[in-house]
Amino acid sequence: MTKAINGVQIACRRSGAGDRRVLLLHGWGCSMALMAPVEEALSGHAEVLTLDFPGFGESGRPPEPWGVPEYAAAVYALCEEERFLPCAVIAHSFGGRVALFLGAEHSGLFTRMVITGGAGLRAPQTAEGQKRAAAFRRKRDLAEKLGRLPLLATAAERLQDRLRQKYGSADYNALDAEMRKTFVKVINQDLSDTLPRQKQPTLLIWGDRDTETPLWMGQKMEREIPDAALIVLEGGSHFAYLEQSARFNAIVKQFLLEA
User: Fold this and answer.
1) Is there a single domain that holds both residue 18 and residue 96?
2) Domain check: are 32 and 50 in the same one?
3) Do 91 and 205 share a structural domain?
4) pLDDT tens column, 50-73
């Protein structure tokens, strides 16, 4: 089904039955399809709501560049319309950003939280990283100045494209110009301040070979979320919840449904 929420059409699906409710939030660049194994494992024991974030899957695009607060507001509004609150939540990667924001802003919204490979924490910038960022800003500013000169506009566009390829992440370069604005707003928000404000019991499940959201992020969340525990899936990447789905699903079923 599709719901008109906060100016955008959001594709979503309800499945299963029971007196427990579980919300599933997928990662950046993905869709609800990648949460299907989790949905299938839970739907025999609980009611499950999954969705495509705006800009991905079958959902429409955000009406303007969105950051984490706008995505969180849309998820909250959808859950309210579906009368799906309070609920437990399982969130992967970008979905973890949204879950952390909602958990901090709406006490009692989530009964329990599972975050796997969650994003939202900014690593301290190294000296090398600072030099790289400064070099990018200088070249970006030059390209913008060139772009204002009609005879050099084409050259400026080629320079900007080379800068994106060299300095931009794979996620950034996969997007069009409008969704890049959303991406920048999302990744520029450090959600560290939300960690101490989480009220619900939280389970963190991380692959120890995750290079996109490294294990230190899960370890920091475990330290700073008041009621949190971390489980490490040995050999798991950023998508450990899919690579080791039987183990992951058994853990979350016990945590969410047998408590």
Assistant:
1) yes
2) yes
3) yes
4) 999 999 999 999 999 999 999 999
Q: Which has the higher per-residue pLDDT, 36 or 142?
A: 36
CA distance 111 to 109: 7
β partners of residue 203: 114, 229
Same domain, 111 and 238: yes
Query: Using 50, 70 and 90 to split pLDDT, how confident is the model at 250?
Result: very high
| pTM exceeding 0.70 | yes
* Same domain flag for 171 and 212: no
Measured distance CA(259)–CA(255) in Å, rounded: 6
Three-state DSSP class for residue 63: coil
Say whether both 46 and 66 belong to one domain: yes
Residue 126: φ, ψ to 5°: -80, 170
- State the Cα–Cα distance between residues 101 and 68, nearest whole angstrom: 7
In a domain, 182, yes or no: no
Q: Where are the strands (E) in the chain, listed by range? A: 2-5, 8-16, 21-25, 47-51, 87-92, 110-116, 202-207, 228-233
**Mean pLDDT, the chain, whole residue set:** 89
Domain coverage including residue 146: 127-175
| Assigned domain for 184 exists | no
The 10s digit of each residue's pLDDT in 29-43 is 999 999 999 999 999
